[in-house]
Amino acid sequence: MRITGQMTSNSLVKNLNRHQVDLDEIQTQIGTGLKIRKPSDDPGLATNQMYFRTRLHELEQFGRNLDDGKARLDQTDGALSVATDILQRVRVLTVQAANGIYQGDKGFELEAAIGKEIDQHLRALIEIANSRDATGKFIFGGHTIDKAPFEVIETKEKNLKGLGIQERIVGVEYRGDIGEQIREIDRGEYIGVTVPGNRVFWGTNTSVTASKDLTEYSVPSDQRIKINGVEISIAAGDKLDDVIDKINSSPLDVKASRLGNNNISLTTTNPHQMWLEDIEGGTVLKDLGLIEPNSSEPPGNFSRSATVTGLSIFDVLIQLKNDLTSGDQEKISGKDLGDIDLALENILRHRSAVGAKVNRIEHHAQRMDFDRTFMTELLAKNESVDLPEAIMNLKWLESVHNYALNIGSRIIRPTLMDFLR
C-alpha cells in the first residue's frame, strides 16, 4: 500500500482534532464538575442521574408531607388532651353529685353551681371540637374544612331565680362528614392525619332499629349501599338474612342483627355516629326502614319510624345538666356516669391512635433522612467528576497532543513552499 504525504497529513490532522475534542471534553468536566452534559454523552449514567434526582425531589415532597401531617396530629392530640382534662373534671363533679354529698338547705344551690360549671365545660368542649389549624381550616370536620363541624342549638329561657333571660344549649349537631384527610409519606404509602368529629366526640354506641316487618323482604335488583363509607354489594333476590350476613362480613365497626319480630337493627361496636347511604339510585336501606325515603344526606336521614339511640359527648353533658336540674340522682349515678366513662374511654382511644401515628411519622422521617443522604451520595458518584483523575487525564492528553505535534513536524516532509521561503 502506497502512503502519500497527503495521507500522512490527513491522519495527523485527524488525530490532532480528536485530541482537541478530548481536551475540550475533559476541560468542560473539570470546569462544571459534571461527567455528562446531555443524555447522549452517556445514556446509562444519564438514566441513573434522572432517577436519583427524581427520587430526591420525591423525598423532599414527602418530607414536607410528613411535617404537615405531624403538625396536624400534634394539634389534634393537644385538643384531645384538653378535652380529656375537661371530661375528667366533669366525672369528678358527677361522682360528687351522684353520692349525694350536697344535701340540706343549700343542696339545691350547690347542684345548680355544678350545673353551671358543667355548662361551661360543655361550651369549652364545643370550642375544642370546632378547632382550626394555622390556615383557619377546621380540623374535626373530615373533608368539610370551611365551616364549623358542630352547630350549637340554643334556646332562651328565664334563669332559675326568674331574673333575666339566659341561653341554654339543648343540642349540638354534626355538620361535617366522615372523610379523613391523608398524606402520602412514600410511594403508595399513606397515613391519615385527621379524625372526623362524629367519631372522636361521640359518647355512646349508636343503634338504628327499623320498625318494618321484613319477613317477606327480597331485594328487587342488584344494588349497593354504604355504611360508614364502606360499599356493600347487595344481589337481586337477597333476603333479610343475606343482607345481614353481608353487612357483618364487611370491614365495619357496625354489626347487624335480626330481631324477633323480623326487624333489622344496626349497632356500632364503638362510639361513633352511624352513616347510612343508598347509592346509585338504590333503595335497600329505604326498603329496610332504616333511612327516610327522599331523605337528605346523612347523618340526618334516619327513618322517622326507626328507633335511633346514641349520644355525642355534648348530648351526654346536656343530659347530665338536665338530670342535675331535676335532682335525679339515680340517673346521675347510673346512666350519666356510665356515659361519661364511655365518652372518656373513646377520647383516650383516639388519643392513643393519634400518638401511634405520630410515632410512625417520626420513625419514617428518620428513614427518609437516611434515604436522602444515600441518594445524594449515589447522585454525586454518578454525575460528579473525580477531579484528581480528571486532572491526570488532562495532563496525559496534553502530553499526547504535544507529542503528536512534535512527531508530525518531523515526519511530514518539506514542500516546495518551504523552499521558496
Secondary structure layout:
Layout: H1 5-32, H2 43-98, H3 107-129, E1 150-158, E2 165-174, E3 182-186, E4 189-192, H4 197-200, E5 207-209, E6 223-227, E7 230-234, H5 240-248, E8 254-258, E9 264-268, E10 276-279, H6 284-287, E11 307-309, H7 313-326, H8 329-383, H9 387-411, H10 416-420
Antiparallel strand pairs: 1-2, 3-4, 5-9, 5-11, 6-7, 6-10, 8-9
Helix pairs in contact: 1-9, 2-3, 2-8, 3-7, 7-8
Oligomer: single chain
How do the SSEs run, as a string of H and E? HHHEEEEHEEEHEEEHEHHHH
CATH evolutionary superfamily of the largest domain: f41 fragment of flagellin, N-terminal domain
CATH topology of the largest domain: f41 fragment of flagellin, N-terminal domain
SS strand fraction: 5-15%
Please give the CATH architecture of the largest domain.
Answer: Up-down Bundle
Structural class determined from secondary elements: alpha+beta
Q: Report Rg.
A: 38 Å
